[in-house]
Amino acid sequence: MLQITNMVKKYKKVTAVDGLSMKIDKGHIYGFVGANGAGKTTTMKIVAGLLKATSGKVYVNGIDIQADPGGVKKQIGYMPDFFGVYDDLRVDEYMDFYAGVYGIPADKRKKVCDDLVELVNLKDKMDAYVDSLSRGMKQRLCLARSLIHNPQLLILDEPASGLDPRARAEIKEILKELRDMGKTILISSHILPELSQLCTSIGIINAGKMVINGTVDEIMQRVSVNKVLIVKVNGEMQPAVSFLKEQPVLCNVTVSNDQISADFNGDDEQLARILAQMVERKIPVISFREAEKNLESIFMNLTVGGMKDAV
Amino acid sequence: MRYNPVIAKELKVKMRGWKSPALVTIYLGFLGLIVFFYFLTNDQISRYSSYSFNPRTAVNIYNMLAIAQFMLILLITPALTGGAISGERERQTLDLLLCTNLPTFSIVFGKLISSIAHVLLLIVASFPILGIVFIFGGIGLVDVLLLFAFYIVTAFMVGSVGLFYSSIFKKSSIAMVMTYVTLLGFVIGTVVIMYVWTFFTMRFGGNPETNPALILIFMAPNPFFGLASMATWSSGYIDIFNIFYELKRIFSDKTAGWIFTRPWLLNITFNVLLSGVLIWFTSWKLKPVKRKKKKKAGYQS
Ligand SMILES: Nc1ncnc2c1ncn2[C@@H]1O[C@H](COP(=O)(O)OP(=O)(O)OP(=O)(O)O)[C@@H](O)[C@H]1O
Ligand SMILES: [Mg+2]
Fold first, then answer.
1. How many CA atoms within 13 Å lie on the side-chain side of B120?
2. What is the pLDDT of residues A24-45, one digit of tens each?
3. Which domains does chain A have, with CATH numbers?
4. Of B3, B5, B99, which is closest to A49 when you measure between CB atoms?
5. Is residue A290 a contact partner of residue A264, using CB atoms and an 8 Å limit?
6. A73 and B288 in contact by Cβ < 8 A?
7. Is A41's C-beta closer than 6 angstroms to any atom of ligand 1?
8. Considering only alpha carbons, which residue of chain B is nearest residue A105?
9. Alpha-carbon span A294 to A226, nearest angstrom
10. ipTM higher than 0.90?
């Protein structure tokens, strides 16, 4: 449905997106996660046709965005991270306006708008002024607006930001409904747990680069097989590091701050043996523990590490 | 004309409620009062002077109203259009329009029409009052229609200047100020430039007599020049600004070239061309992704 290859976006000085590639299959909900300033909004704006990529290719449903931007726009419903509403318009007028903008013929507009307003549970607010709606209602209204032309791909930039848990849950329910309707959804967030139950695929972006992506199952699998071993030593770390690097059950031995971490693929017995050998070699171990690696911790590791590189 | 959702929405909001009717009422009342008092002070309503009515009075009123309305257009339109696009950006609703397939031309044109709608409404509504002067003679219907056409073209010109700045500057206030400055350039700047030019050409051995063609060229963008030369054109015996009297005399003397007797045509042409260019440019500027005509091989920008 959506394919991005090697996309680069440079603003005057900053490189906001740096060789990003991703692929979303039809019917998937793709969670696009990254810290503030990672380049999520920039990526989404390019796909929505609001920005021009410096280089790279974007295909939506097989259509090249550069060759036929109009054709792509027909397929995309975009909800920006920040958006305004026209005060002085009622909900039905607001929807009617955008239906007109999207070129829905006058005789079909009312039906389309009514159905969508119903979908986002704003039926009883039909006559209210848009300005008087709560934040969550406005968010839902904007979601309904992005659906007016029946797009196949939805691009939602932090649709749940600034909402309370209840309003978040409401949005989530609507998104599930949309998924069941067969829409493909690209949804961004800087909070991973928010997406993990909802999404089928996840991509984590950091400093404009895709760090890890795949289906939620794939990522979870990688995560649950590998555990992380975290070791702290008193004083010189080098002997400990070189010892750990020799161990066949350990890989990716890294030093960050004052602790050594390594991906561990084995059982408790092996773990105990490693500790015993370290003590035998008089390595001053002060802490030796195994950490659960969940999506959250991967995210934290990846983004924190990346930021250090960037600075 | 094709349905333009921007116009439909803006007009719906603008004309809703009591504000627009109130505005029209107050404006017309104001114009009516001017007319009434003018007649009163000139002793035209008095019972005894009804036989000595001087059509000149009616023409004077007409000219006064013509100028007053014209000033109104020049003063109000920048304020109405300067925020049309920058306001949309400030309110964060512009992206929602740009991510649709609505051509940017429709956005710009819709904004232009709906922004000057109030001005157009006032102009059209004032037609009967200006028409009062028919009763007394001296002004032909052609004059009034021509004047209204001139108003509308001028409103479009000022509006597209406002829209142009509105798309360039992020802040509405700056766009408005720039529009006023540009208008000032058209009104006063053209005169200054013309005199400076004549001064220098005279110093360097040019023809000391003012060349009418030159005046026309320099004055083409000047809205008041257009107004002055056309206000009561078909009846022909009134010149609302005395400063233009001399020019007009020169033009009338000139037998060659019909443009010399209708300088306002030049001004209208200028306005139409400028509006066209600015609307086109603003639409182009708004397009988020501009397509290049030809892509150079092996080079990616
Ligand atoms: N118009 C712009 N001009 C210059 N730099 C920009 C512009 N927009 C974004 N950037 C830069 O591009 C980078 C990516 O920004 P972007 O808004 O895409 O991040 P994000 O992932 O959406 O962050 P957030 O979670 O805060 O929304 C940032 O470093 C930002 O400073
Ligand atoms: Mg963002």
1. 17
2. 998 889 998 888 888 999 999 9
3. 2-222 (3.40.50.300), 227-292 (3.30.70.100)
4. B99
5. yes
6. no
7. yes
8. B3
9. 10
10. no
